[in-house]
Amino acid sequence: MKTKDFSTGINYWPIDKAMYWWRNFSYQELRSDFSQIANYGMKLVRIFLLWEDFQRYPNLISPTALNHLRTTADLAAEYDLKIIVTFFCGHMSGVNWMPYWMLEETKAPSRFPLFSLGSVQEAKIRNFYHDPLAREAQILQIREVCLTLKKHPAIWAYDLGNEASNCVMPKCHEEAREWLRIMSSAIKSCDPNSLVTLGLHAEDLEEDRLLRPQDAGPFCDFLTMHAYPFYLSWVEEPLDVLVLPFLGMLTAWLGEKPVLMSEFGIPSQPTISPFYASPHKSRVPLFTESQGASFYKQALSLLQESDMLGAMAWCYGDYAPYLWDKAPLLQNPHERHFGLFRHDGSAKMAATVLHTYKSCGDQASEYKQLSSSFLEDWKRELYYEDPQGNLIKMYRQFRQENLL
Residues of 162-171 as b/e, b for ≥16 C-beta within 10 angstroms? Predict the structure, then answer.
């Protein structure tokens, strides 16, 4: 069954600012970008509160950043856009961004570069699921942000973190659930009608990071999933679009909550100069714009057919070349080219797909309704006994039932 209200949207960082947006805020730039997003038919915009910019000190939320956030919400309302506000950012584009006070003195190896105070640091991140300083700081951020935006017509939901398990993993499920309870309660106490979610990703299903959909479900109004088939070792084809509805349906089944596919997309080969795409520095392929358009077209229909709440593209635009020598684009060259719009603001073919896509009722899907009968053979309480093995077996079943 299709969702009656399937929404499309975008994950937003400005083309000319990337993760350096909040400290270099431009009203005119944001107005232009939101106008373009609205003109291309998208309704949801996910934004990220870079932790260091909003909370340079644990006991103070930046008044300037809050003013910029309020302006962002006001402009969204002007263009009839709805915003998902993501707290504690956190992990972003292959780099962990943290204020200095979130770093322990202990040096520790890290899978992802750690960026703080303008450079990459060698340090361990405080475990914000239980650390008293971090927890109080998070509650303060939630309170100040939610009071600033309370009853604002543009606010659709609050996200408790972007792929939080890439920063720190809780020590146990009880710790994760207690953190989720405290944070969601802090939001609801400020604005009881606000929606709460958590930015989960495929690795939360591939392994037990002690922050499962089952942990998040009781404290969230809906769950989200991020799906990029070309990142997944168990997927044979890098643009296997069936991975998207599968991961969404699996998340909904495990967490027993509806799911928004809040990230999907592909990095594309640049068609305007500079053409240096650094493929030799990245294991992630760059695809043609026509491949991207086909992927987006199939993904939107399949996600709607699998009863997702909506689908949000990663991301708004390719980043300006003068940002390429800065984090995270220096470390992860493919992240330069994920946009629906080129770095000169012109639209890629995938943006046109989103522009012309119409939700159910207006468009008959070219795909059959996706079957979820593969879930009948499994017990959710046993899934994490062997998450990777079970994931692969379940996907094989799903593909057999739903080959395009």
Answer: bbbbbbbbbe
Strands (DSSP E) contained in 164-240 are 195-199, 223-226
Is 1 within a domain? Answer: no
DSSP E strand boundaries for 248-333: 259-264, 310-313
For residue 153, give its domain range.
Answer: 7-402
Q: What is the CATH number of the domain that holds 99?
A: 3.20.20.80
Is pTM beyond 0.90? Reply is: yes
The answer to the question of residue 60 being in a domain is yes
**28 domain residue, yes or no:** yes
C-alpha–C-alpha distance, residues 234 and 388, integer Å: 9
Mean pLDDT by 10 residues, the chain (404 residues): 76 99 98 98 98 98 99 99 98 98 90 96 96 98 98 98 97 98 98 96 98 98 98 97 98 98 98 71 86 98 96 99 97 97 98 84 57 93 98 96 79
Asked whether residue 195 is assigned to any structural domain, the reply reads yes
